[in-house]
């Protein structure tokens, strides 16, 4: 995540902010520029004048879910046909808002989704709404499990990502994390994982990458339902950490890809944040981890350099957490096969980024 500042007073502001805490200006995110802009009331009701020079004094409107529902902070051009921003257009089912609890869960879900979308825009692989692109587009459905209704499973199918809104309840999510013996379970992590299934279809299936995918992740043509049942019946292999980023990644090549994809986005966004904030490590003793992030991930000379930055950063993150009595923020061990998978994902992303931006992928 980048760092942002108010256009009016230069106070630092954050991705989720709707108002500057210093001068009170209304704030809005513009995904096409990946900036937080400050706005003043426009001449017409419902329109806002941008104070950001990049917008040339043009007028904008709030996403309807910003202006009416207070669950968004994204903006649209005043002439846009849609009343929903690029993020909210992707959500086609929301929970019943008769419950304030559901409204809170919806707000948390949308906030996590926007974090994912920021990364996808940075990588220039942002999805189009399924409504506009039925074949290759993406849609989200946020479903509530009812007492007499069917069990709601978080998952992906044919460009539709479904999330059980109970995942937006920290207590419920922690209970499931303990039951599943997972070291890490977050709302943003769910979005990253499920987006991995979507991007497998977009970036790997029926492409020139598929043979290398099968070499690294395995043959995805094996029966998925049988593999999943085997995992739930017998659990993962005792030595799963030698090949996989998580025990769930060992279920099937599709899950291995999705877990590895989520981990890549986890690394990408955290390193982008560290770079934007100027995080450095200058140890007092030699041979302790050092860190000077000279460029964001997409502009780093090699993935090995990115890994060096990552290992140094997670060392200090875990050390800081332990100092305040919290669990490790990064409870993972990356084996050589896992690093090879992450490197492969990086190559795939760089190639698609170059194709979508008309640039040349780094060698």
Overall description:
There is one protein chain. The chain has 363 residues and is an alpha+beta fold. Helices cover 39% and strands 13% of the residues. Strands 3-4-5-6-7 form a 5-stranded antiparallel sheet. α2 packs across α4 and α7 crosses α9. It is globular and about 65 Å long. The mean pLDDT is 92.
List the helices and strands and how they pair.
Blueprint: E1 4-5, E2 12-13, E3 26-30, E4 35-41, E5 47-50, E6 59-62, H1 64-67, E7 75-77, E8 91-93, H2 100-122, E9 139-143, E10 155-157, E11 160-164, H3 170-179, H4 187-204, H5 210-217, H6 224-234, H7 253-277, E12 280-281, E13 291-292, H8 303-323, H9 336-357
Parallel strand pairs: 8-9, 9-11
Antiparallel strand pairs: 1-2, 3-4, 4-5, 5-6, 6-7, 10-11, 12-13
Helix pairs in contact: 2-4, 4-7, 5-9, 7-9
How would you summarize what this structure contains?
The protein is of the alpha+beta class. It has helices at residues 64-67, 100-122, 170-179, 187-204, 210-217, 224-234, 253-277, 303-323, 336-357; strands spanning 4-5, 12-13, 26-30, 35-41, 47-50, 59-62, 75-77, 91-93, 139-143, 155-157, 160-164, 280-281, 291-292.
Spell out the key features of this protein.
about 375 residues, alpha+beta, four-stranded mixed β-sheet, about 40% helix, globular
Number of E-type strands:
13
Main β-sheet: number of strands, strand sense, barrel status?
5 strands, antiparallel
Q: Strand portion, in percent?
A: 5-15%
Rg from alpha-carbon coordinates: 21 Å
Record the strand order, biggest sheet.
3-4-5-6-7
Distance between the termini: 25 Å
Give the SSE string: EEEEEEHEEHEEEHHHHHEEHH
Query: Helix/strand-derived class?
Result: alpha+beta
Low-confidence stretches: none
Mean pLDDT: 92
Helicity level: 25-40%
Number of helices: 9
Q: What is the 3D shape?
A: globular
């Amino acid at each position: 995540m980048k760092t942002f500042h108010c256009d009016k007073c230069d106070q630092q502001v954050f991705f989720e902010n709707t108002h500057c805490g210093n001068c009170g200006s209304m704030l809005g995110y513009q995904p096409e520029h990946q900036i937080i802009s400050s706005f003043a009331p426009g001449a017409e009701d419902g329109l806002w004048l941008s104070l950001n020079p990049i917008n040339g004094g043009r007028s904008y409107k709030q996403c309807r879910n910003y202006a009416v529902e207070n669950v968004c902070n994204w903006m649209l051009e005043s002439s846009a046909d849609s009343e929903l921003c690029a993020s909210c257009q992707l959500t086609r089912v929301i929970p019943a808002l008769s419950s304030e609890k559901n409204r809170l869960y919806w707000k948390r879900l949308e906030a996590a989704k926007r974090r994912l979308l920021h990364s996808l825009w940075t990588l220039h692989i942002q999805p189009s709404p399924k409504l506009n692109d039925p074949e290759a587009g993406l849609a989200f459905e946020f479903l509530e499990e009812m007492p007499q209704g069917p069990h709601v499973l978080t998952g992906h199918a044919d460009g539709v990502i479904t999330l059980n809104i109970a995942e937006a309840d920290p207590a419920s999510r922690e209970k499931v994390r303990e039951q599943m013996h997972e070291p890490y379970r977050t709302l943003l992590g769910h979005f990253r994982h499920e987006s991995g299934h979507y991007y497998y279809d977009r970036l790997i299936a029926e492409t020139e990458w598929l043979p290398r995918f099968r070499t690294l992740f395995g043959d995805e043509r094996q029966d998925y339902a049988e593999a999943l049942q085997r995992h739930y019946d017998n659990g993962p292999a005792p030595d799963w950490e030698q090949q996989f980023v998580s025990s769930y990644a060992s279920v099937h090549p599709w899950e291995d890809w999705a877990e590895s994809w989520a981990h890549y986005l986890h690394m990408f966004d955290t390193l982008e944040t560290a770079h934007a904030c100027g995080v450095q490590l200058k140890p007092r003793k030699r041979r302790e981890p050092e860190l000077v992030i000279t460029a964001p991930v997409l502009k780093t000379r090699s993935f090995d350099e990115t890994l060096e930055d990552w290992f140094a950063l997670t060392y200090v993150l875990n050390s800081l957490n332990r100092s305040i009595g919290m669990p490790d923020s990064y409870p993972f061990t990356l084996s050589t096969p896992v690093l090879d998978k992450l490197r492969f994902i990086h190559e795939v992303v760089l190639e698609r980024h170059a194709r979508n931006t008309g640039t040349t992928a780094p060698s």
